[in-house]
Design a protein that fits this description.
By secondary structure, this protein is mainly α. Helices cover about 60% and strands about 5% of the residues. Helix 2 runs antiparallel to helix 3 and helix 2 crosses helix 4. The longest helix is centred in the middle third of the chain and has 29 residues.
Length: about 120
């Protein structure tokens, strides 16, 4: 994403003020404000020094993308291998549903066949 240059070359190659830069700065500051208002207080200190929405979002992605991938893999494994054990059926199904919903929210939905297979496999001792 980056930024726009503050000046653009004129007809005689002189530097002219770039009128789109001011609009871009305003829009970017709105996005930064939205990001800062949306991010939890624990993450805010990690964004100190970020001057654009691009740098802010890139830092969040760099710091948390691998953790998200780990969660995705963990939740997928839980859907496939969680045992009912001593849980009531209601607790077991609620637990499985929480993993399925979390995966869907992360952009990795679990289809019905996989859900049913995971649930029935978890019922066996």
């Amino acid at each position: 994403m980056g930024s726009l240059p503050p000046t653009i070359p004129g007809e005689n190659k002189e530097a002219l003020f770039n009128p789109k830069k001011e609009i871009w700065n305003h829009q970017d500051s709105l996005i930064v404000s939205w990001l800062l208002a949306s991010i939890s207080e624990q993450i805010l200190p990690e964004l100190v020094g970020c001057e654009t929405s691009d740098s802010s979002w890139s830092r969040v992605l760099n710091n948390y993308a691998s953790q998200s991938q780990t969660k995705i893999l963990t939740y997928k494994k839980m859907v496939q291998s969680q045992k009912k054990g001593t849980m009531s059926m209601k607790e077991y199904l609620a637990s499985m549903k929480s993993y399925v919903v979390s995966l869907a929210m992360m952009g990795h939905p679990v289809n019905e066949d996989e859900q049913l297979m995971g649930i029935t496999e978890g019922l066996s001792p």
